[in-house]
Design goal:
Blueprint lengths: L2 H32 L4 H9 L6 E2 H8 L3 H13 L3 E5 L7 E5 L1 H22 L4 H23 L1
Antiparallel strand pairs: 1-3, 2-3
Length: about 150
């Protein structure tokens, strides 16, 4: 594949992914902005669902965000009482982040709203289109898994 074709393919993929992502998250982004939060805050909260406790390093790795930026994001969530910092009993230097009750309620409600907005978005598609979306998603998962092994 020539470099120009490769660049076009990368740009097309990025544009399609971003457009779908923005359409799917439009409602959530609007709701988050009312509380001064951004999509990354939503993703952090979602990662902590189910009683998970993650370190700042874990979150940094999961989100591909620097530790100083994770600290700023977590500070905002702590201020809103959505998460709390807890010391790991074996090593007091390690600080873990976990959801509070208020954070659980917020992410639960926001997740339901996200699902509803995606359902409304996909309502415009017929069964054949939905099958193509499902197939495309499965293909992308396989390709990303291959790239992650590299």
């Amino acid at each position: 594949m020539r470099n120009s074709e490769l660049l076009t393919m990368i740009m097309d993929f990025t544009n399609v992914f971003n457009e779908f992502n923005n359409k799917a998250f439009k409602f959530i982004d609007e709701q988050l902005s009312k509380t001064g939060l951004v999509r990354t805050h939503f993703i952090i909260l979602h990662e902590l669902v189910g009683g998970k406790e993650l370190s700042m390093s874990d979150l940094s790795e999961i989100l591909h965000v620097t530790k100083p930026n994770i600290t700023v994001l977590i500070d905002k969530l702590v201020k809103l009482d959505y998460v709390e910092r807890v010391n790991k009993s074996q090593d007091r230097r390690v600080i873990l982040i976990r959801l509070t009750g208020k954070g659980e309620a917020f992410i639960g409600k926001s997740s339901e709203e996200l699902i509803e907005s995606v359902v409304q978005l996909l309502d415009y598609l017929d069964q054949e289109d939905l099958y193509l979306v499902k197939q495309s998603t499965q293909v992308m998962k396989v390709l990303i898994a291959k790239l992650n092994k590299k």
